[in-house]
Every structure is written in structure tokens, then in C-alpha cells.
Design brief:
The chain has 13 helices and 16 strands. By secondary structure, the chain is α/β, with parallel strands linked by helices. The structure holds zinc ion.
């Protein structure tokens, strides 16, 4: 089933009522149901045929809900660890690396696995919708979407907190069809989401959709496809740091497909997700065995987000409670949530650099720290097949090799900006 895709290789299954839907490329929910739910892609190919690494992310196009292929994508790369594995006393540790590390074949120029989602989401959108895609981001997602939309001439508005503009570095600038809108200094990711909702209330714009976008989840799920095809089996444990947890939900969904494929053994994959203490709403909710998220005061959340080094892990409203969300994924896989503070993450990041030879993002360092803690606590068997998802890395290396510049916002809005005014001003940018 490999080869170029035009969208005829999948349908969407509504997890609310089980209905099968034809994809429009931008559909995010079932037209008949109002309870929160996911649409899940249902692929014609039960067996995955992965292409060569040169095909970038689209080597996994059998299991991506896309209508076309775009320029410039890269695939996650998986390899068996020797040095870090030996240090931790593990016999079967596999690292899935997302970022910039040419020596390993890793070619994500914006440095994180957000490229997996960006090249999947944008390839799902048909050419010439006549509308403008809107993406809210703390930084990494915006950087990835700016790149794919610039390279492929897709109209885009990214909405970021003004204080995070320095995260939008690039080696190639951006195309005219890509605009940056910021929520004024002092605001956070949550405020940027609120501003993006105002933009999306305009006719001319449509939202990317976050976890509800099946292309986002299946794009992120390629990390597990990369691991399983390299390992020849499904891993026993999956370690990843989470903000929204969408990557972990995606990993669970990918494992279910690989189980149905039948070529990768039994599905024993436990999700071991981690948060950067003290921003720990997922941890607290999980440990309370609560499907609803525990209460988190807005001011406390901003304060916690300020403290943690892995800023991207500070989502206040993760898709945890809804059917098929993170709570269900953790329950279904027998998974767990682990905390790592800034100090533990920093020393894990340094250990990774020393043993594996590449810099990793603060979020990825949280995942490494969680693995170190799980091993020390005897919570994983030393011979277990472990997948460590390094969600970002090689950014220091990339910046050493390339000249990168910052990005400026085209417009900045305060939190109380009027929606009609926002729509008019952003509309004038196009
Ligand atoms: Zn429905």
C-alpha cells in the first residue's frame, strides 16, 4: 500500500457513535454528536509498509490521513542505545530521536517532533481551501508550522505569547503567506489559545484543532512506527514527557494499529509519561485516580509554568478526561505518570549529552530523568524493551551549523482585545 497518497486510503471513524465519515481535510468532530470525542483515522492498509528514510515523514503515509505530500519533511529516527543503556544497566533500550542530528539521519530543522504533526496536518489539508489555518503555540509547534507552511505556500497564522517570540528562530525566515500574531507580554500559552479562538471565529480562518485533529495524532504516532519497525516489535515501555499528552495518546493509538498488523508481537506497551515538577496537573489527576482534571487555579498555574524549565509542558487543559484521551490511554496500557524537577532534568540532559553525544530539549530531558528514576526504583525490568522518545534535540548543534534569526510579530493584542477587531486586523494581513 505504499506510494503517493491522495486521501483515498482512509476514512474517519467517529469515536462518539461509531459512524464512518468521509474526510474533508479539516473536519475535527462528528456532525451529529456534541459530547467531547475524537475522530480516528481508519486505514485501508492493515499492514504497515514503511518506505526508506529518504521519504521523510511520508515513509509512513500508509498510516497518515493525508491528501498530498509536502516538501521538506523528516522522519523520527530510532537506534539502540549502548552508552546510556550501559550506564543505566539496561539491555534493550531504544532511543527514538526527533530533531537535528545528521550523523544519525535525523533532519528536523526546527528541532522537535512537532514537525511530525505539522507535516501531517498540513498534508491533510487540501490545496487551495481559500482559508487561513490558525495554530496556537508556546513555541515549538509554531516553529514547525512556520517552516512547513513557508516551504509549501500554505496560508497560516501562528498565535504565540509575545514573551515566547525568541522561540521562533529560523534559518530561512518565513514566506509572505505566514503571519505571526502575539498575545501581549505577560501572557502565557493559555492566553495565546484564547486569542487564537478569537481569530478562528472569523469566516476566513479555521483552527488546527490540537489533539482533536487526527492528522496531528497520527503524525506524532510515527515515533512509535519508527521504533517498532526498527526494533522488529512493540516496546514494553514508552517514555515521554507530556504537556497536553497528545503525543502519548498518539503512541497508544499507533500501538493498537501495530497490534492489529500482527507483525510486531503482543501489545505490551505501557505509557510512562512525565511532567516537570511543579507543573503537574496530569500527575495529580492520575494519582488521585480521577478522570476529571483536578482543580488548578489560574494564578497558581502561571506561577508553576514560570518555574519549570520545560515550558512546553505547561498545558493547563490537556485532553485527559474525554473518551480515548490520556486517562483512558494510561488505564488501557497499565501506564503511569512520573515527575522530574528542574535539577533532575538538567542532570539527565547532561548525562544524555555525555553518553549519547547530542544536546536535547528541556522536555526531552524530563523524559530521560523519568527513565533514570524508574530504573533506580526498580520499576522497569533490566531486560525490558524500552522506547525512550526524545521529543526534541540537536538544536544547539543546528544553531552552531546555521545562521538563525528571531521572528517579529505582525500584530500584538492584549487579553481584552475585541474579537471583531482582532478578526479585522488579522484579515488585513492577507
Ligand atoms: Zn458521533
Amino acid at each position: 500500500m505504499s506510494g503517493k497518497k491522495d486521501g483515498s486510503h482512509y476514512k474517519l471513524k467517529a469515536m462518539c457513535c461509531g459512524k464512518t465519515l468521509e474526510d474533508t481535510g479539516t473536519l475535527l468532530s462528528c456532525p451529529d454528536c456534541s459530547e467531547p470525542h475524537f475522530l480516528r483515522a481508519d486505514y485501508a492498509a492493515v499492514k504497515l509498509e514503511a518506505g526508506p528514510l529518504e521519504e521523510g515523514l511520508y515513509r509512513f503515509s500508509d498510516w497518515l490521513p493525508i491528501q498530498r505530500e509536502l516538501k521538506g519533511s523528516a522522519s523520527p529516527v530510532t537506534y539502540k542505545s549502548e552508552a546510556l543503556a550501559a550506564e543505566l544497566g539496561l539491555e534493550n533500550l531504544w532511543i527514538t530521536f526527533n530533531g537535528w542530528w545528521p550523523a544519525k539521519g535525523a533532519a528536523m530543522k526546527t528541532g522537535t517532533f512537532k514537525e511530525c504533526e505539522a507535516y501531517s496536518v498540513c498534508a491533510r489539508i487540501p490545496d487551495h481551501t481559500g482559508k487561513v489555518l490558525v495554530v496556537a503555540s508556546a513555541g515549538n509547534t509554531a516553529r514547525a508550522f512556520i517552516r512547513v507552511c513557508s516551504e509549501n505556500n500554505i496560508p497560516l497564522v501562528v498565535v504565540v505569547p509575545e514573551d515566547n517570540l525568541n522561540a521562533l528562530w529560523s534559518d530561512e525566515g518565513r514566506a509572505d503567506c505566514v503571519k505571526i500574531v502575539a498575545s501581549a507580554s505577560g501572557s502565557d500559552y493559555f492566553d495565546a489559545i484564547a486569542l487564537s479562538n478569537k481569530v478562528c471565529s472569523g469566516e476566513q480562518f479555521y483552527p488546527e484543532g490540537g489533539a482533536k485533529n487526527p492528522a496531528r495524532r497520527d503524525g506524532m504516532g510515527t515515533t512509535v512506527l519508527s521504533a517498532a519497525t526498527e526494533m522488529g516489535r512493540l516496546p514494553d515501555y514508552y517514555f515521554q514527557a507530556v504537556g497536553s499528552g497528545t503525543g502519548a495518546i498518539a503512541a497508544w493509538e499507533a500501538a493498537l494499529r501495530l497490534e492489529a498488523d500482527g507483525s510486531y508481537g503482543a501489545n505490551t506497551m505501557k505509557l510512562m509519561v512525565s511532567q516537570n515538577e511543579p507543573f503537574q496537573i496530569i500527575y495529580d489527576s492520575w494519582k488521585a485516580d480521577s478522570r476529571p482534571l483536578v482543580e488548578l487555579d489560574d494564578d497558581a498555574a502561571r506561577e508553576q509554568a514560570h518555574i519549570i524549565n520545560a515550558k512546553v509542558l505547561s498545558n493547563r487543559k490537556p485532553p485527559y478526561s474525554l473518551p480515548g484521551g490520556l486517562y483512558d490511554a494510561l488505564k488501557a496500557t497499565g501506564g503511569d505518570v512520573i515527575l522530574a524537577d528542574n535539577e533532575e532534568a538538567a542532570s539527565a540532559g547532561a548525562l544524555f549529552l555525555e553518553k549519547e553525544g547530542i544536546d536535547i530539549s528541556p522536555a526531552a530531558a524530563v523524559a530521560v530523568a523519568s527513565l533514570v528514576k524508574a530504573v533506580k526504583a526498580g520499576r522497569v525490568e533490566t531486560d525490558a524493551a524500552i522506547m525512550l522518545n526524545i521529543t526534541g534535540g540537536g538544536m544547539e548543534l543546528f544553531k552552531k551549523e546555521h545562521t538563525t534569526g528571531p521572528s517579529k510579530a505582525d500584530l500584538v493584542f492584549s487579553a481584552d482585545a475585541d474579537a471583531a477587531d482582532v478578526i479585522e486586523q488579522v484579515g488585513k494581513l492577507f
